[in-house]
Design a protein that fits this description.
Two copies of one chain form a homodimer. In chain A, helix 1 crosses helix 3 and helix 1 crosses helix 4. Chain A has five helices and two strands; from the N terminus they run αααββαα. The two termini of chain A are 31 Å apart. Chain A has a two-stranded antiparallel ribbon with strand order 1-2. Helices cover 43% and strands 6% of the residues of chain A. The longest helix of chain A is centred in the last third of the chain and has 17 residues. Chain A is mainly alpha-helical and 143 residues long. In chain A, a hairpin with a 5-residue loop joins strand 1 and strand 2. The interface between A and B is large, with 44 and 43 residues. The first copy, chain A, binds a DNA duplex (30 and 30 nucleotides) through helix 3.
Amino acid sequence: MSMLSNKAQYAFRALTYLVDKYNQGPVLISDIAKKKKIPLKFLENILLELKKAGILDSKKGKGGGYYIKEHPSKTSVAAVVRIVNGPISMLPCVSLYFYERCANCDEKNCGLHDVMEQVRDATLNILEKRTLEDLASGRESLG
Amino acid sequence: MSMLSNKAQYAFRALTYLVDKYNQGPVLISDIAKKKKIPLKFLENILLELKKAGILDSKKGKGGGYYIKEHPSKTSVAAVVRIVNGPISMLPCVSLYFYERCANCDEKNCGLHDVMEQVRDATLNILEKRTLEDLASGRESLG
DNA sequence: TATTACCCTACTTGTTTGGTAGGATATTGT
DNA sequence: ACAATATCCTACCAAACAAGTAGGGTAATA
């Protein structure tokens, strides 16, 4: 299997909720966990990770919580995937952010490399353009 | 991580070798393992799996070995990925061959679903068209 | 200064991945 | 026939990872 991890799916569910609450002040972790049915402590880890990566910001103490840092249209789906799920490419040797040379393979003359490079480009062409805004419940259309 | 597994990469390396030897009779597992630097017993499992899936065929006894069943242009890269690596889609709820309903998510009104559906289509558009033939060492061009 | 709520480290449990071991079975040359 | 060859099959093992839990530390605020 190589799908998005459970963690990544939780992250997107939480982010969707936060998009819906954008500009309405901090949202409690416990609130998100309850509404989106995500294990509380696990969600804590995920949100913290997204904060460290610069997607979210938080406020401590009473009246605190998490909220999306910039306008939802500023954060791409690709960025989120990379943070909570890792590489987007199907091979290390075609990854832009997680590149690793492949063992026993001449990249200049490797058919698989070429195919996977095309897949990467096609995928990124979508994931880099789509943003958190596209995940919101009330969105109009995806064009 | 959600890249192709080590196993899948081994599979493609082995298949590349078999494409190069197409129509030259059965090839020994030990030959492939040696030339492509793949652990012998592990490779046995992989080739067997590809045989059961109908990609390869084999001959036992002296002069035996593995060989590609149909013409290399008949087997898509997508088919191989599904056999040795599983789903191609990033979410179960957009998978064609490994579909599963997603928990707590209305597919009809889910932004992430729509995005991942597009990614799936873009990916399959490439992986279904590319074949084992494209992996061969001596190929001319990828057009 | 007590309460709230995020922050942080560490741990546990179950599953998957990447192999290995050893023999059973089928084929073929002599 | 029979020995050699080479695939086929079942089971096992260790390390890595995923998913989730525990428990307290720290900062803000009323």
